[in-house]
Amino acid sequence: MSDLVIVPILLPAIIAALSLVRMVRLSHLARWLSGASTLGILASSLVLFLWAQDGSISTYELGDWPAPFGIVMVLDRLSALMVLLTSVLAVIVFAHAVLTGLDRRGVHFHPLFQFQLLGLNGSFLTGDLFNLFVFFEVLLIASYGLMLHGQGEQRLHAGVKYVIVNLVGSTLFLIAVGILYGVTGTLNMADMAQRVAEAPAGDQPLIRVGGQLLIAVFALKAALLPLHLWLPQTYASTSPAVAALFAILTKAGVYPIIRVTVLIFGADAGAAAFAPAGWMLPAAMLTILAGYVGVLAARNLRSLAAFGVIGSTGTLLVAVSLFTPEGIAAALYYMPHSVLAGGLVFLVTDLVRRARGEDEDDLRPGRPFAGIGQISVLFMFSAIALAGLPPLSGFVGKVLILDASAGEELMGWIWGAVLVGTFFAILGLARAGSTLFWKTEGEPAKAPAHRHPRETVPAWGLLALVAGLTIFAGQVTDYARDTSAQLFERTPYIDAVLGDAAQKGEGLR
After folding, report:
1. Rounded to the nearest 10 degrees, what angle do helices 77-100 and 109-125 cross at?
2. Which residues contact 460 (CB under 8 A, 6 or more apart)?
3. Maximum Cα–Cα distance for the chain, whole Å?
4. Domain boundaries in the chain?
């Protein structure tokens, strides 16, 4: 059964390579292959998720080289959750791209889509810091191509900035990994956790510097203020459907913050214990405000959705920054909501842009358009989800976060940031909704050519998943708490990865 751990990585790698073959990419076969791969990843990730329910930790050693010498993939509750979340979002975005014809605007959409899934799943499953870097590069390179899909001067301009920012981040990542490898002599995360805990006092300052730099790189990818400036233009410039898939990219930064900080720089790490806690919480609170003020000031729906992702990620990172079992549990409930709600807003944005014709998604009064009733309902629920209002799961997640912060030194500031940010989000979303759907004027806009009658189905699917998080909030919360408890109990993870080496203290010396 442990062989299944490699399937979410191996399957998109094979299909992406096949889709690059000229005779395939110029035919409908590429679409069918990509669709089958995406569904196959969903099926395997669902099996893995169910398999991890009992708290077992499974590993897959590439080339049969044991850790810490070889490359190892690790499946636990957290990685199973992230892979499942990625595959669910991918299936819905894929369906939207096919129904709206986005995938036909260039021959490389499907291989890039599969490479994106390869990078995301690899980054969630790897147990090695250097291979985390490699998978990050795969998903980033794929995201460059997806961002530019459909072309356009604005996308190219934003894409250049996106590339430069991530090149800087990749360089800093390598520097941080080099520092930690130089001190600990290993890149395997389980092995490094042991080495950091046993490091002499003289090595602690350098370990702390390496840890802080590494977490700062992850914060850049998570768009934590002031490292968030790349995101609004990037997400607002690309196709809204692609931006919907990008809703999980910031979580690819949040995930290693949780994994690395709790596992390597946890309570046993001496001077490096919970290294980013001092600066991450204030930065997360400011990120909430910056994101939702951007929602209030946005001039089009794409910018509004992009700033909404920033505000939502800031809310998530407030819970993470507590670095307590209660805080991480609250974050793990709110994370799926944040991804699904962000993706939903971008899909609704695409529906609005296509239906309004030349008015696109600009936040100014325009002509009535076909399907305005159905799309307005979708927008209303997506706005409720993004703002975190009842009755949807965002409200439950925020209540859990506020409850987790009870008794913290900065509790008042946390509550203030979350509540004020929510107020700004409500104002911005209400303004957008009234402008788009109430202040219509003139003759009805002409319906776009080749409009598919079922193109709203993927958005309704995402909304149903958000509703499911609400209906099954008790079960999801229990899973989040169990996952948090597993993260803070490091010994089973280390034993599962290192096996006999964990007991003998062996490794790369």
Report:
1. 170
2. 378
3. 77
4. 2-499
Look at residue 249 and give its three-state secondary structure: coil
Backbone angles phi, psi at 54, to 5 degrees: -80, 5
pLDDT tens for each residue of 406-421 = 988 899 999 999 999 9
196/268 Cα distance (integer angstroms): 8
Q: How far apart are CA 392 and CA 423, in angstroms?
A: 16
Q: How far is CA 102 from CA 54, 106, 108, 239, 476, in A?
A: 40, 8, 11, 8, 33
pLDDT digits (tens, 9 = 90+) for 219-274: 999 989 888 888 888 888 888 889 999 999 999 999 999 999 999 998 887 777 88
Please give the structure tokens belonging to residue 447.
């319906």
The two three-digit tokens of residue 278, written as one number: 């001092």
Evaluate if residue 355 carries a pLDDT over 70: yes
Q: Are 391 and 470 in contact (CB under 8 A)?
A: yes
Total-model pTM: 0.92
- Residues written for the chain: 509
**What number is the average pLDDT over the span 74-102?**
95
CA angle, 343 as apex, 396 and 374 as ends, to 5°? Answer: 90
Identify residue 93 by its one-letter amino acid code: V
The whole-angstrom separation of Cα 318 and Cα 212 is 17
